[in-house]
């Protein structure tokens, strides 16, 4: 064997010191056979480097690479963060609207917190008779519950989340009047915050199936349609001011099953814009319209869009970590 080839094999042997003696012999023997097949039989070092690479670089090809395990805790923490902060923002926005919106916009008359839209019944009215103005702290429940997974990422935190979501569900169903409608979007997100990590962590590439997306689209269209009809009933301005945004939300809902991330982001943005527009329209200086209906339509759109965006982010993260491009 030419001297250049012997020197190359010796350098390669030293570079393979991370292998066992048997493994090293096998690599050197395979390399030797390659050298015999080279033009010139490995007589020139320049040819060896050009065709086989530097000995150190060739040795790196045989280095062991242990597969990196994807920690489940890391994935759950990722889901928790991307779910929690937007839910917290919506909960805080709901509190501000309920507490500080003009009385006509919030549909609360001077008789008290529980007498909503002319209704003297409902759970909120009964609670107000018992605890008075302290009832206002109920509005802060979603704000606190939305951050529980960040503070208590364990079974105790999950139990608190379920209890909080149950309380808000009772308020939405039995609260009475339009005030309870303001809490429906954030309550949906509180339940999603409980179950989404459980569903998405079933597999590293888990993502919402077509059935979930179709159900979400149907639910959203139903809510938008109901809110539109109720909003038009007592709206004094041009109907297109309500119908236009409603059509946009409905179209975006129909596109949900296509899994287009741009559509999901647009749904979140459109939901927020409808909520803001509804608040402006509710001011006494504009149309004095009821805020509950655009809040219900826009808030539900925001909720569905946010969950779709979060699911897409989780799927994309898992795809990149597993190098499945």
TrEMBL record:
It comes from the Bacteria. The chain crosses the membrane at residues 82-101, 129-152, 182-199, 211-228, 240-258, 265-287, 293-314. The keyword Amino-acid biosynthesis does not apply. Keywords: Membrane, Transmembrane, Transmembrane helix. The keyword Transmembrane applies. This is DUF1700 domain-containing protein. It comes from Glutamicibacter arilaitensis. The lineage of its organism: Bacteria, Bacillati, Actinomycetota, Actinomycetes, Micrococcales.
């Amino acid at each position: 064997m030419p001297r250049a080839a012997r020197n190359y094999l010796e350098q390669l042997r030293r570079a393979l010191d991370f292998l066992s003696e048997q493994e090293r012999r096998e690599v050197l023997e395979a390399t030797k056979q390659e050298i015999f097949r080279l033009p010139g039989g490995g007589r020139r070092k320049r040819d060896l480097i050009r065709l086989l690479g530097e000995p150190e670089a060739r040795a790196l090809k045989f280095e062991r690479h242990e597969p990196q395990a994807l920690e489940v805790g890391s994935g759950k923490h990722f889901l928790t963060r991307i779910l929690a902060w937007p839910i917290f923002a919506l909960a805080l926005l709901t509190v501000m609207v309920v507490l500080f919106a003009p009385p006509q916009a919030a549909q609360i008359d001077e008789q008290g917190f529980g007498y909503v839209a002319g209704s003297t019944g409902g759970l909120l009215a009964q609670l107000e008779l018992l605890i008075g103005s302290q009832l206002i702290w109920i509005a802060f429940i979603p704000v606190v519950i939305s951050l529980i997974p960040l503070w208590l990422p364990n079974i105790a935190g999950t139990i608190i989340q379920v209890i909080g979501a149950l309380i808000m569900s009772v308020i939405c169903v039995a609260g009475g009047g339009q005030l309870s409608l303001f809490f429906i979007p954030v309550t949906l997100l509180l339940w999603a915050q409980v179950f989404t990590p459980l569903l998405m962590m079933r597999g590293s590439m888990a993502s919402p199936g077509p059935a979930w997306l179709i159900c979400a689209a149907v639910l959203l269209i139903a809510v938008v349609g109901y809110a539109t009809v109720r909003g038009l009933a007592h709206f004094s301005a041009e109907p297109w001011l309500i119908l236009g945004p409603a059509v946009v939300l409905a179209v975006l809902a129909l596109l949900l099953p296509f899994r287009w991330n741009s559509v999901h982001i647009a749904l979140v943005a459109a939901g927020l814009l409808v909520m803001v527009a509804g608040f402006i329209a509710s001011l006494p200086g504009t149309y004095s319209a009821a805020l509950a209906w655009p809040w219900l339509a826009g808030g539900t759109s925001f909720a569905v869009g946010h969950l779709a965006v979060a699911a897409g982010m989780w799927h994309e993260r898992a795809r990149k970590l597993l190098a499945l491009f």
